[in-house]
Amino acid sequence: MAEIGHGGKEIVERIMDPAQAKEKIKGLKEIPIRSQIANEVIGIAYGFFSPLEGFMGKADLDGICKNMHLANGVLWSIPILFDLSDAEISDYGIKVGDSVVLTYQGNPMALFEIEEIYEYDKKTICQAVYGTTDDKHPGCARTYAYKDKFIAGKITLVNKPIINPPYDPYFIPPLEMRKRFKEKGWVRVVAHQTRNVPHTGHEWLMKGAWLQTYGELPIDKPLVGVLVNAIIGEKRKGDYIDEAIILTQDELRKSGYFGDHNHLTSLTFWDMRYAGPKEAIFHAILRTNLGLTHHMFGRDHAGVGTYYGPYDAHILLEQHKNELSITPVYSMNWLYCPHCGEVTSEGLCNHKNEWQKFSGTVIRSIILDGVKPPRLIFRPEVFDLVMECAEKYGFGSPFVTDEYLQNRIPVFTIPPLA
């Protein structure tokens, strides 16, 4: 039975048989790619980005910039682009109609069938996607860093990535993910998007979303799950290290704050654009392809700085919810009310002057000091695991440093083609 993803299209893995791949790529030109492109090749090939079959052409990019839809009319909000400089195009001697091999870590990764070579104004992309042309916005900075031309065409994986420990149990592509949900008997699954180690505010966001998603269903057996889908991609100094993110998210299940019957942790390879509302639409598409029925969206989802209002993502999702095959679950801030003596949400109690917000900055400073926070703020098992990850993976720090960036074990490896 076909598995249907975003846009009503069947999810297909674009992965070539190894024996066929070796013969197919023989003698083809090779183009090395950076980590962002490698992440996106995986996203395309395994169906995370369905219905995309490759990197976008000008008509699709134009559609996104003008009305947030692909040329075929399917809702889409973030461009997936492959860039090369004029010098590289000349040096490689590539032209429309060519097939080339994309290499990563020195080994063949994907076959790229070139259908179009074009240019596009980068400021137009920035204004359309990020609502600003400010180069201080990380998404704009990424866009301005693109080279002279964009190359469009279909992608086929010729060499599967080896997912390295401790990430290997958490790479669950869309077709496999859907099987997991069926095995668990989940008829509804709500996504929690994250790039953080969880404090109890995050935990209560998930629990609140689970309760909302469960709705009217009977409670005699587990029918609803929370999928933590951690974003693993480009790191900046001061971010939590990836190992701590993925392992501590799963620790909430292992330590009993959730259970096997209602919680699963996974990862997606993606370099955050911090596009706020537009990235919320993209996340809804991504999790639709993973087979989820619901998606939690909190305050300032995928935002950065003061570029977006706190609930702009909610507003945009409401405008396009009829084009999405996933139900948004909206959430306000979770915080601690000392008067009530419990975790609560904005507007739930009447003690606004006493509310204490969960400050990621304050929590990070506590972690740097090595002081275990109160369990109402940070689960002790999670804190202990953060410290363990710092020693085991982070060269003594739970946050990204220059040493970590230079010497970390890669999340995935592309092996020599057998």
Protein model, in words:
The chain is α/β, with parallel strands linked by helices and 418 residues long. The chain folds into two domains: 6-160, Sulfate adenylyltransferase, CATH 3.10.400.10; 168-413, Rossmann fold (3-Layer(aba) Sandwich), CATH 3.40.50. 33% of the residues lie in helices and 19% in strands. The chain is built from 14 helices and 16 strands. The protein has helices spanning 18-24, 35-45, 58-67, 86-92, 122-130, 138-144, 174-184, 200-214, 242-254, 277-289, 312-320, 360-368, 380-392, 402-407, and strands at residues 30-32, 54-55, 83-84, 99-104, 107-118, 149-157, 162-163, 188-194, 224-232, 263-269, 294-297, 327-330, 334-337, 342-345, 356-357, 412-413. Strands 1, 2, 3, 4, 5 and 6 form a six-stranded mixed β-sheet that branches. Strands 10-9-8-11-12 form a five-stranded parallel β-sheet, sandwiched between helices. Helix 9 links the parallel strand 9 (224-232) and strand 10 (263-269). The longest helix is centred in the middle third of the chain and has 15 residues, at 200-214. It is globular, with a radius of gyration of 22 Å. It starts with 17 loop residues before the first helix and ends in a 5-residue tail after the last strand.
